[in-house]
Amino acid sequence: MSRVKKNNLIWLTVFSWLLVLWANASNSTEKYSNNIKPLFMALDNSLPNYVGYDCWHGYEDILDNLRDAQNGVPPEKDKVKIAECLMNSAKTEYPPLIFATSVFSDESINAVTRGIEIVSSRLGNYGPYHVYLVGNNEEKGFVVDVEEIAKIYCNSADKYTEEPFENCFENAMNDFPNFGCCGAAHNPSHGIGQNIRYQSAVFSEDNRSTKEGRSIITSAHEYIHVYQNGFFLWGNDIAAEQAGLTEEYSHGPVWLEEGFAEGLAQKFTYQDGYNNHYKDFLNEALDAAIKVNRIHKFTLRDIATRQDQANVRSICEECQGWLQYETAAIALAVLESQIGNENFIDSFKSYYGNVPIVGWESAFEVSFGMSMNEFYEMIDIFMEKPKKEQRKIIHKLL
Ligand SMILES: [Zn+2]
User: Fold this and answer.
1) For residues 105 and 89, what is the distance between their CA atoms, to the nearest angstrom?
2) Distance from the CA of 349 to the center of ligand 1, in angstroms?
3) Could you give the angle at which helices 278-294 and 328-339 cross, rounded to 10 degrees?
4) Is 198:153 a contact under the CB 8 Å cutoff?
5) What separation in Å is there between the alpha carbon of 303 and the centre of ligand 1?
6) Which pLDDT score, from 0 to 100, does residue 207 have?
7) How far away, in angstroms, is 291 Cα from ligand 1 center?
8) How many CB atoms lie within 10 A of CB 37?
9) Which DSSP symbol is given to 46?
10) Beta bridge partners of 100
11) From the CA of 221, how far away is ligand 1's center (Å)?
12) Ligand 1 centre from 78 Cα, in Å?
Protein backbone atom coordinates (compact mmCIF):
# COMPACT_ATOMS: atom_id res chain seq x y z
CA MET A 1 0.00 0.00 0.00
CA SER A 2 2.59 2.46 1.06
CA ARG A 3 4.70 1.31 -1.86
CA VAL A 4 1.89 2.04 -4.25
CA LYS A 5 1.33 5.37 -2.60
CA LYS A 6 5.01 6.19 -2.90
CA ASN A 7 4.95 5.30 -6.59
CA ASN A 8 1.90 7.46 -7.06
CA LEU A 9 3.65 10.27 -5.30
CA ILE A 10 6.69 9.90 -7.55
CA TRP A 11 4.48 9.93 -10.62
CA LEU A 12 2.56 12.88 -9.32
CA THR A 13 5.83 14.72 -8.73
CA VAL A 14 7.14 13.80 -12.18
CA PHE A 15 3.84 14.77 -13.72
CA SER A 16 3.75 18.15 -12.01
CA TRP A 17 7.32 18.82 -13.08
CA LEU A 18 6.37 17.97 -16.62
CA LEU A 19 3.48 20.39 -16.30
CA VAL A 20 5.80 23.10 -15.02
CA LEU A 21 8.28 22.41 -17.82
CA TRP A 22 5.52 22.42 -20.39
CA ALA A 23 4.11 25.67 -19.01
CA ASN A 24 7.57 27.25 -19.09
CA ALA A 25 8.25 26.03 -22.60
CA SER A 26 4.95 27.31 -23.90
CA ASN A 27 5.49 30.58 -22.03
CA SER A 28 8.82 31.15 -23.70
CA THR A 29 7.42 30.50 -27.16
CA GLU A 30 4.21 32.35 -26.48
CA LYS A 31 5.92 35.32 -24.91
CA TYR A 32 6.01 37.12 -28.25
CA SER A 33 3.02 35.37 -29.84
CA ASN A 34 0.88 38.52 -29.80
CA ASN A 35 3.46 40.26 -31.93
CA ILE A 36 4.04 40.18 -35.61
CA LYS A 37 6.74 37.59 -36.17
CA PRO A 38 9.71 38.58 -38.37
CA LEU A 39 10.10 36.39 -41.46
CA PHE A 40 13.29 34.98 -42.93
CA MET A 41 13.36 35.47 -46.72
CA ALA A 42 15.33 33.93 -49.58
CA LEU A 43 17.49 36.41 -51.47
CA ASP A 44 15.60 35.77 -54.72
CA ASN A 45 12.20 36.25 -53.13
CA SER A 46 9.88 38.77 -54.76
CA LEU A 47 9.21 41.90 -52.74
CA PRO A 48 5.85 42.59 -51.09
CA ASN A 49 3.59 45.32 -52.42
CA TYR A 50 3.18 47.27 -49.23
CA VAL A 51 0.18 49.52 -48.89
CA GLY A 52 0.98 52.60 -46.83
CA TYR A 53 -1.13 54.98 -44.83
CA ASP A 54 -2.16 58.16 -46.58
CA CYS A 55 -1.91 61.29 -44.43
CA TRP A 56 -2.09 63.62 -47.41
CA HIS A 57 -5.81 63.64 -47.95
CA GLY A 58 -6.96 67.24 -47.46
CA TYR A 59 -3.42 68.31 -46.61
CA GLU A 60 -1.80 68.01 -50.05
CA ASP A 61 -0.74 71.66 -50.23
CA ILE A 62 0.58 71.83 -46.67
CA LEU A 63 2.63 68.64 -46.99
CA ASP A 64 3.85 69.50 -50.49
CA ASN A 65 5.13 72.83 -49.20
CA LEU A 66 6.78 71.28 -46.17
CA ARG A 67 8.55 68.69 -48.28
CA ASP A 68 9.82 71.23 -50.79
CA ALA A 69 10.93 73.75 -48.18
CA GLN A 70 12.85 71.14 -46.12
CA ASN A 71 12.82 73.36 -43.05
CA GLY A 72 12.39 70.51 -40.65
CA VAL A 73 9.49 72.28 -38.93
CA PRO A 74 5.82 71.33 -38.51
CA PRO A 75 3.00 73.16 -40.28
CA GLU A 76 1.27 75.95 -38.38
CA LYS A 77 -2.21 74.75 -39.33
CA ASP A 78 -3.46 71.36 -38.08
CA LYS A 79 -0.04 70.52 -36.66
CA VAL A 80 -1.25 68.01 -34.07
CA LYS A 81 -3.71 66.32 -36.44
CA ILE A 82 -1.11 65.87 -39.18
CA ALA A 83 1.58 64.82 -36.69
CA GLU A 84 -0.68 62.17 -35.20
CA CYS A 85 -1.49 60.79 -38.63
CA LEU A 86 2.19 60.67 -39.62
CA MET A 87 3.18 59.04 -36.31
CA ASN A 88 0.52 56.40 -36.92
CA SER A 89 1.72 55.86 -40.47
CA ALA A 90 5.10 54.74 -39.08
CA LYS A 91 3.42 51.72 -37.48
CA THR A 92 2.66 48.69 -39.58
CA GLU A 93 1.03 45.28 -39.62
CA TYR A 94 3.61 43.95 -42.08
CA PRO A 95 6.17 41.56 -40.56
CA PRO A 96 9.83 42.61 -40.51
CA LEU A 97 11.76 40.72 -43.21
CA ILE A 98 15.24 39.28 -42.70
CA PHE A 99 17.53 38.64 -45.66
CA ALA A 100 20.89 36.93 -45.15
CA THR A 101 23.80 35.61 -47.17
CA SER A 102 24.39 31.86 -46.99
CA VAL A 103 27.22 32.31 -44.48
CA PHE A 104 24.76 33.02 -41.66
CA SER A 105 23.69 30.15 -39.40
CA ASP A 106 20.11 29.54 -38.26
CA GLU A 107 21.28 30.56 -34.81
CA SER A 108 22.30 34.00 -36.11
CA ILE A 109 19.03 34.50 -37.96
CA ASN A 110 17.12 33.46 -34.83
CA ALA A 111 19.10 35.91 -32.71
CA VAL A 112 18.25 38.78 -35.06
CA THR A 113 14.60 37.67 -35.10
CA ARG A 114 14.46 37.52 -31.31
CA GLY A 115 16.16 40.93 -30.95
CA ILE A 116 13.35 42.50 -33.00
CA GLU A 117 10.65 40.62 -31.04
CA ILE A 118 12.07 41.70 -27.68
CA VAL A 119 11.69 45.36 -28.69
CA SER A 120 8.48 45.19 -30.72
CA SER A 121 6.71 43.39 -27.85
CA ARG A 122 7.33 46.54 -25.79
CA LEU A 123 7.22 49.38 -28.30
CA GLY A 124 5.06 48.07 -31.16
CA ASN A 125 5.65 47.09 -34.77
CA TYR A 126 7.16 49.85 -36.91
CA GLY A 127 8.18 49.88 -40.54
CA PRO A 128 7.89 48.05 -42.94
CA TYR A 129 11.38 47.03 -41.85
CA HIS A 130 13.95 44.94 -43.71
CA VAL A 131 17.18 43.58 -42.23
CA TYR A 132 20.09 42.63 -44.49
CA LEU A 133 22.73 40.37 -42.93
CA VAL A 134 25.75 41.08 -45.10
CA GLY A 135 28.66 39.97 -42.90
CA ASN A 136 32.21 41.28 -43.05
CA ASN A 137 35.59 40.61 -44.58
CA GLU A 138 37.32 39.91 -41.26
CA GLU A 139 38.15 36.38 -42.33
CA LYS A 140 38.33 34.72 -45.70
CA GLY A 141 35.02 33.20 -46.76
CA PHE A 142 32.87 35.57 -44.68
CA VAL A 143 31.77 37.64 -47.67
CA VAL A 144 29.54 35.60 -49.97
CA ASP A 145 26.46 36.26 -52.13
CA VAL A 146 27.35 39.95 -52.30
CA GLU A 147 25.63 40.53 -55.62
CA GLU A 148 22.50 38.67 -54.54
CA ILE A 149 22.06 40.56 -51.27
CA ALA A 150 22.99 43.91 -52.91
CA LYS A 151 20.27 43.26 -55.50
CA ILE A 152 17.46 42.63 -53.04
CA TYR A 153 18.70 45.51 -50.86
CA CYS A 154 18.61 47.91 -53.83
CA ASN A 155 15.42 46.52 -55.34
CA SER A 156 13.80 47.36 -51.99
CA ALA A 157 15.33 50.86 -51.96
CA ASP A 158 14.09 51.38 -55.51
CA LYS A 159 10.61 50.06 -54.77
CA TYR A 160 9.96 51.78 -51.45
CA THR A 161 12.16 54.91 -51.41
CA GLU A 162 13.27 57.62 -53.79
CA GLU A 163 16.70 56.06 -54.31
CA PRO A 164 17.10 54.54 -57.79
CA PHE A 165 18.42 50.97 -58.11
CA GLU A 166 21.58 51.83 -60.11
CA ASN A 167 22.85 54.37 -57.63
CA CYS A 168 22.19 52.08 -54.67
CA PHE A 169 23.71 49.03 -56.39
CA GLU A 170 26.95 50.79 -57.30
CA ASN A 171 27.42 51.91 -53.69
CA ALA A 172 26.44 48.57 -52.22
CA MET A 173 28.83 46.63 -54.46
CA ASN A 174 31.62 48.93 -53.26
CA ASP A 175 30.68 48.92 -49.59
CA PHE A 176 29.41 45.41 -48.79
CA PRO A 177 32.61 43.45 -49.61
CA ASN A 178 34.65 45.90 -47.54
CA PHE A 179 32.65 45.81 -44.31
CA GLY A 180 34.83 45.36 -41.23
CA CYS A 181 33.67 43.55 -38.13
CA CYS A 182 31.14 44.24 -36.52
CA GLY A 183 28.06 46.32 -36.20
CA ALA A 184 25.02 47.56 -38.07
CA ALA A 185 23.82 50.68 -39.85
CA HIS A 186 20.27 51.87 -40.01
CA ASN A 187 18.50 53.69 -42.86
CA PRO A 188 15.58 55.75 -41.60
CA SER A 189 12.38 56.57 -43.40
CA HIS A 190 11.48 60.13 -44.23
CA GLY A 191 8.31 61.36 -42.63
CA ILE A 192 6.90 63.71 -45.21
CA GLY A 193 5.94 62.50 -48.64
CA GLN A 194 6.15 58.79 -47.95
CA ASN A 195 3.05 56.69 -47.62
CA ILE A 196 5.24 53.66 -47.00
CA ARG A 197 7.54 54.36 -44.06
CA TYR A 198 10.08 51.74 -45.14
CA GLN A 199 13.19 51.41 -42.93
CA SER A 200 16.14 49.07 -43.18
CA ALA A 201 19.33 48.02 -41.44
CA VAL A 202 22.50 46.45 -42.80
CA PHE A 203 24.47 44.16 -40.47
CA SER A 204 28.21 43.65 -40.70
CA GLU A 205 28.16 41.13 -37.86
CA ASP A 206 28.88 37.43 -38.34
CA ASN A 207 28.14 34.09 -36.65
CA ARG A 208 30.80 34.79 -34.03
CA SER A 209 28.83 37.87 -32.88
CA THR A 210 25.87 35.57 -32.26
CA LYS A 211 28.00 33.12 -30.24
CA GLU A 212 29.24 36.04 -28.12
CA GLY A 213 25.60 37.01 -27.47
CA ARG A 214 26.02 40.29 -29.32
CA SER A 215 23.74 39.89 -32.38
CA ILE A 216 20.54 39.83 -30.38
CA ILE A 217 21.53 43.13 -28.68
CA THR A 218 22.56 44.72 -31.99
CA SER A 219 19.25 43.69 -33.51
CA ALA A 220 17.35 45.15 -30.53
CA HIS A 221 19.45 48.35 -30.76
CA GLU A 222 18.64 48.83 -34.45
CA TYR A 223 14.96 48.16 -33.86
CA ILE A 224 14.89 50.90 -31.19
CA HIS A 225 16.16 53.22 -33.94
CA VAL A 226 13.28 52.03 -36.13
CA TYR A 227 10.90 53.06 -33.35
CA GLN A 228 12.65 56.43 -32.85
CA ASN A 229 12.54 57.17 -36.56
CA GLY A 230 8.79 56.69 -36.59
CA PHE A 231 8.67 60.08 -34.85
CA PHE A 232 10.97 61.93 -37.20
CA LEU A 233 8.36 63.62 -39.35
CA TRP A 234 9.30 66.97 -40.77
CA GLY A 235 12.57 66.33 -42.56
CA ASN A 236 15.91 67.95 -41.81
CA ASP A 237 16.42 71.55 -40.80
CA ILE A 238 19.45 71.91 -43.06
CA ALA A 239 20.21 75.49 -41.94
CA ALA A 240 20.32 74.51 -38.26
CA GLU A 241 22.44 71.45 -39.01
CA GLN A 242 24.94 73.51 -40.98
CA ALA A 243 25.09 76.07 -38.19
CA GLY A 244 26.10 73.28 -35.81
CA LEU A 245 22.85 73.35 -33.87
CA THR A 246 20.59 70.55 -32.73
CA GLU A 247 17.52 70.68 -34.96
CA GLU A 248 14.45 71.57 -32.95
CA TYR A 249 12.18 68.79 -34.23
CA SER A 250 14.90 66.14 -34.49
CA HIS A 251 15.52 63.44 -31.89
CA GLY A 252 17.62 65.88 -29.91
CA PRO A 253 21.31 65.53 -29.07
CA VAL A 254 22.99 62.61 -30.86
CA TRP A 255 24.05 61.03 -27.55
CA LEU A 256 20.39 60.81 -26.49
CA GLU A 257 19.37 58.81 -29.55
CA GLU A 258 22.27 56.37 -29.18
CA GLY A 259 22.12 56.24 -25.39
CA PHE A 260 18.47 55.16 -25.50
CA ALA A 261 19.14 52.61 -28.25
CA GLU A 262 22.07 50.92 -26.52
CA GLY A 263 20.84 51.29 -22.92
CA LEU A 264 17.37 49.91 -23.69
CA ALA A 265 18.67 47.13 -26.00
CA GLN A 266 20.90 45.94 -23.15
CA LYS A 267 18.09 46.22 -20.60
CA PHE A 268 15.31 44.59 -22.64
CA THR A 269 17.47 41.60 -23.64
CA TYR A 270 18.55 41.27 -19.98
CA GLN A 271 14.92 41.40 -18.76
CA ASP A 272 13.95 38.62 -21.16
CA GLY A 273 16.85 36.39 -20.15
CA TYR A 274 19.05 36.79 -23.23
CA ASN A 275 21.80 39.01 -21.82
CA ASN A 276 24.05 37.69 -19.05
CA HIS A 277 26.43 40.59 -19.44
CA TYR A 278 24.19 43.48 -18.48
CA LYS A 279 26.01 44.10 -15.20
CA ASP A 280 29.39 43.93 -16.99
CA PHE A 281 28.03 46.31 -19.62
CA LEU A 282 27.03 48.84 -16.94
CA ASN A 283 30.38 48.51 -15.13
CA GLU A 284 32.44 48.83 -18.30
CA ALA A 285 30.30 51.74 -19.56
CA LEU A 286 30.89 53.46 -16.20
CA ASP A 287 34.66 52.97 -16.56
CA ALA A 288 34.59 54.49 -20.06
CA ALA A 289 32.43 57.39 -18.88
CA ILE A 290 34.87 58.11 -16.04
CA LYS A 291 37.85 57.93 -18.41
CA VAL A 292 36.40 60.30 -20.99
CA ASN A 293 35.30 62.70 -18.25
CA ARG A 294 38.38 62.77 -16.04
CA ILE A 295 41.17 62.33 -18.60
CA HIS A 296 39.71 64.07 -21.62
CA LYS A 297 37.37 66.44 -19.74
CA PHE A 298 34.48 65.78 -22.11
CA THR A 299 30.83 65.77 -21.06
CA LEU A 300 27.63 64.97 -22.95
CA ARG A 301 27.35 68.66 -23.82
CA ASP A 302 30.29 68.12 -26.17
CA ILE A 303 28.48 65.54 -28.31
CA ALA A 304 25.13 67.09 -29.13
CA THR A 305 25.49 67.53 -32.91
CA ARG A 306 27.09 65.90 -35.97
CA GLN A 307 29.71 68.67 -35.96
CA ASP A 308 30.48 67.92 -32.32
CA GLN A 309 31.06 64.28 -33.26
CA ALA A 310 33.72 65.35 -35.76
CA ASN A 311 35.30 67.77 -33.27
CA VAL A 312 35.52 65.19 -30.51
CA ARG A 313 36.92 62.61 -32.94
CA SER A 314 39.63 64.98 -34.09
CA ILE A 315 40.83 65.39 -30.50
CA CYS A 316 40.38 61.79 -29.34
CA GLU A 317 39.26 59.11 -31.77
CA GLU A 318 37.74 56.76 -29.19
CA CYS A 319 36.05 59.52 -27.21
CA GLN A 320 33.14 59.81 -29.64
CA GLY A 321 32.02 56.25 -28.87
CA TRP A 322 32.73 56.56 -25.14
CA LEU A 323 30.50 59.63 -25.04
CA GLN A 324 27.61 58.75 -27.32
CA TYR A 325 27.25 55.12 -26.24
CA GLU A 326 28.86 54.48 -22.84
CA THR A 327 28.51 57.88 -21.16
CA ALA A 328 25.03 58.32 -22.65
CA ALA A 329 23.91 54.89 -21.43
CA ILE A 330 25.28 55.62 -17.93
CA ALA A 331 23.64 59.06 -17.82
CA LEU A 332 20.28 57.53 -18.75
CA ALA A 333 20.86 54.75 -16.20
CA VAL A 334 21.28 57.44 -13.54
CA LEU A 335 18.01 59.01 -14.67
CA GLU A 336 16.28 55.62 -14.63
CA SER A 337 17.57 54.75 -11.16
CA GLN A 338 16.09 58.02 -9.97
CA ILE A 339 12.62 57.79 -11.56
CA GLY A 340 12.18 53.98 -11.64
CA ASN A 341 12.03 51.56 -14.56
CA GLU A 342 8.35 51.84 -15.42
CA ASN A 343 8.35 55.63 -15.31
CA PHE A 344 11.49 55.65 -17.40
CA ILE A 345 9.92 53.61 -20.23
CA ASP A 346 6.72 55.70 -20.11
CA SER A 347 8.80 58.89 -20.22
CA PHE A 348 10.86 57.53 -23.10
CA LYS A 349 7.68 56.90 -25.10
CA SER A 350 6.22 60.25 -24.09
CA TYR A 351 9.42 61.97 -25.22
CA TYR A 352 9.24 60.60 -28.76
CA GLY A 353 5.50 61.21 -29.03
CA ASN A 354 6.04 64.86 -28.10
CA VAL A 355 9.12 65.62 -30.22
CA PRO A 356 7.26 66.30 -33.51
CA ILE A 357 4.77 68.56 -31.76
CA VAL A 358 6.72 70.63 -29.22
CA GLY A 359 10.35 69.99 -30.25
CA TRP A 360 12.92 67.87 -28.40
CA GLU A 361 13.83 70.33 -25.67
CA SER A 362 10.30 70.85 -24.38
CA ALA A 363 9.52 67.17 -25.00
CA PHE A 364 12.39 66.21 -22.67
CA GLU A 365 11.24 68.58 -19.95
CA VAL A 366 7.59 67.53 -20.20
CA SER A 367 8.47 63.82 -20.20
CA PHE A 368 11.32 63.57 -17.68
CA GLY A 369 10.37 66.47 -15.39
CA MET A 370 13.67 68.31 -15.81
CA SER A 371 15.26 70.54 -18.41
CA MET A 372 18.22 69.31 -20.45
CA ASN A 373 20.47 71.69 -18.48
CA GLU A 374 19.22 70.31 -15.18
CA PHE A 375 19.90 66.84 -16.52
CA TYR A 376 23.47 67.77 -17.52
CA GLU A 377 24.04 69.21 -14.05
CA MET A 378 22.70 66.05 -12.42
CA ILE A 379 25.20 64.00 -14.44
CA ASP A 380 28.04 66.41 -13.51
CA ILE A 381 27.25 65.74 -9.84
CA PHE A 382 27.13 61.99 -10.47
CA MET A 383 30.52 62.06 -12.20
CA GLU A 384 32.06 63.69 -9.09
CA LYS A 385 30.95 60.87 -6.79
CA PRO A 386 33.28 58.06 -5.73
CA LYS A 387 33.08 55.00 -7.99
CA LYS A 388 31.62 52.82 -5.25
CA GLU A 389 28.67 55.16 -4.91
CA GLN A 390 28.29 55.46 -8.69
CA ARG A 391 28.09 51.68 -9.02
CA LYS A 392 25.46 51.50 -6.30
CA ILE A 393 23.30 53.97 -8.25
CA ILE A 394 23.53 52.23 -11.63
CA HIS A 395 23.18 48.74 -10.10
CA LYS A 396 19.65 49.70 -9.07
CA LEU A 397 18.78 48.75 -12.65
CA LEU A 398 19.69 45.08 -12.09
ZN1 LIG B 1 22.74 53.25 -32.98
Assistant:
1) 34
2) 17
3) 120
4) no
5) 14
6) 93
7) 22
8) 12
9) P
10) 133
11) 6
12) 32
Alpha carbon distances (Å) from 319 to 153, 182, 183, 264: 33, 19, 18, 21
Q: How many CB atoms lie within 10 A of CB 173?
A: 14
Separation of CA 17 and ligand 1 centre (Å): 43
**Segment 120-175, tens digit of pLDDT:** 999 999 999 999 999 998 877 678 999 999 999 999 999 999 899 999 999 999 99
**Predicted TM-score (pTM) of this structure:** 0.91
What distance in angstroms lies between residue 131's CA and the mean position of ligand 1's atoms? 14
What's the 275 CA to ligand 1 centre distance in angstroms? 18
Burial of 14 (0-12, 13-18, 19+ CB in 10 A): exposed
Length of the chain counted residue by residue: 398
Alpha-carbon span 73 to 250, nearest angstrom: 9
Using the mean position of ligand 1's atoms as its centre, give its distance from the Cα of residue 59 in Å.
Answer: 33
261 Cα to the center of ligand 1, angstroms: 6
Please state, as a whole number, how many other Cβ atoms lie within 10 Å of the Cβ of residue 320: 23
Q: How far apart are CA 209 and CA 91, in angstroms?
A: 29
Written as one letter, the residue type at 105 is S
Ligand 1: centre distance to CA 225 (Å): 7
Measure 102 CA to ligand 1 centroid, in angstroms: 26
How far is residue 39's CA from residue 97's CA, in Å, rounded to a whole number? 5
DSSP code of 56? -
Q: If you ran DSSP here, which 8-state letter would residue 100 be given? A: E
| Domain extents in the chain | 39-235, 256-397
b/e burial code for range 203-219 (CB count within 10 A of at least 16 → b):
bbbbbbbbeeebbbbbb
Q: How far, in Å, is the centroid of ligand 1 from the Cα of 62?
A: 32
- Cα 139 to ligand 1 centroid, rounded to whole Å: 25
Q: Which residues of the chain have pLDDT under 50?
A: 1-28
Strands of 66-139 (E only): list them. Answer: 97-100, 129-133
Distance 259 CA to ligand 1 centre (A): 8
d(CA 274, CA 278): 10
Query: Ligand 1 centre from 4 Cα, in Å?
Result: 62
Nearest to 233 by CA among 53, 96, 95, 93: 53
Q: Residue 16 has what pLDDT? A: 46
How far, in Å, from the CA of 258 to the mean position of ligand 1? Answer: 5
